Amino acid sequence: MIDRALLVRAVALYGPLLLATGFAARHRQDRRQSAALLLGFLWCWPSLLLVQLLNLQFHWWSFHASGGLMRSMPVDLLLGWAILWGILPALAFPRQKLWMVLLAFLGLDLAAMPVCAPVIELSHSWLTGEVAAICLVFLPAQLLARWTLNGTHLGLRVWLQVATALGIFMFMPVEIASAVTGRDTWKALLSGPPWLRGIELQLVFLLAAGGVSATGEFARRGLGTPIPYDPPRRLVVSGLYRYLANPMQVFCALTLTTWGMVLRNPWVTGSGALSVIYSLGLARWDESEDLKERFGNSWLLYRQHVRNWIPRWRPWYDPEAPAPCLYVAENCGPCSEVYRWFEARNPVALNIVAAEDHPSNSLTRITYEPMDGTPPESGVAAFARALEHLNFGWAWLGALLRLPLICHLTQLLLDAGGLGPQKIERRSCRSGPVI
Hints:
Layout: H1 4-26, H2 31-58, E1 61-63, E2 69-70, E3 73-74, H3 75-86, H4 88-92, H5 98-112, E4 120-122, H6 126-150, H7 154-181, H8 194-220, H9 247-262, H10 266-295, H11 297-305, E5 325-328, H12 333-344, E6 351-354, E7 367-369, E8 377-378, H13 380-387, H14 392-401, H15 404-419
Parallel strand pairs: 5-6
Antiparallel strand pairs: 1-4, 2-3, 5-7, 7-8
């Protein structure tokens, strides 16, 4: 007689897997749809485990199983659920209205959960957990997959990709290490002197911020994402890319290695080494060929001057490209200090121009014009952008300042301190002679 628990676990994994394989076999997948399916799955995998951590606190359901567990959840159920919610909807119903797909999969889950006994035992509040899972797992996964498939909502999908990467690289290795060793790896964060823990976590944040900022650069200046099947449409040579040809991989490797050392776990540290091996092998070959094919001589010129792993100290610039402009008001005390500060440091490929001489607008804040067809930036974002024209150290600080929450908070504090916007009238707009 077949053990019912084993049958439930087998169906939970192989049922979604066979359905996904069947739908995939019916229609050949293009590159963009493959990226959408991959991202949907990668979002679901760590976020479902996060829901399980919440479940351990709120007791929506419990698992009765032995062997192959992560946080008391069977790994086969975790993978099957990630395929069911991350891949199947985008594969089977890519053009249906999202709310209809959501209701269909919610109904399927409501029907399937009670019949998964004895592996899953539901509590009286299990519907609350179901709603939490829909909001944290299913909905973001399908938004990310659909936006990727349709090429829409570039900014939002890039930041969802960043959240996915943090889950895959920062969260899952720790959980896998805990499952393999039988020890809670997170407890290392509570050991040792608090001041040392604080310094270590700040270092991890600073390293991760470099990679996150480089990812945002792909969206803002490259009009694409880091996913190979959803790449930038323009060659990105701004931000940290002025110093490193692949800052995302460099900072990913450094962050994972440092994260593993902070957690005192060789498994997590080893994931940093694996990322280096991947970057030096398959990724380097594939990306180089793809970029050479798409950008030709521009890419070859860039790679002659910018290395993959060792940063330049001063930024590289394309001598054939127009230099960006930083517009700073001459008749504003604090602004004129910024003007002189940048001039004293001999910025590379940056024209510092009086805001009063802007060719078309009366500006209200310091403004950075990239001169490459992408939108200008103002305020703290403009100052941070100009830092990338000094040296690698200042560029790293600028990358940190440009991160959305940090940039907005810094701008708010400066505005509250009396350094808010003020209209700078263009000289050509003034009446009378200009002296």
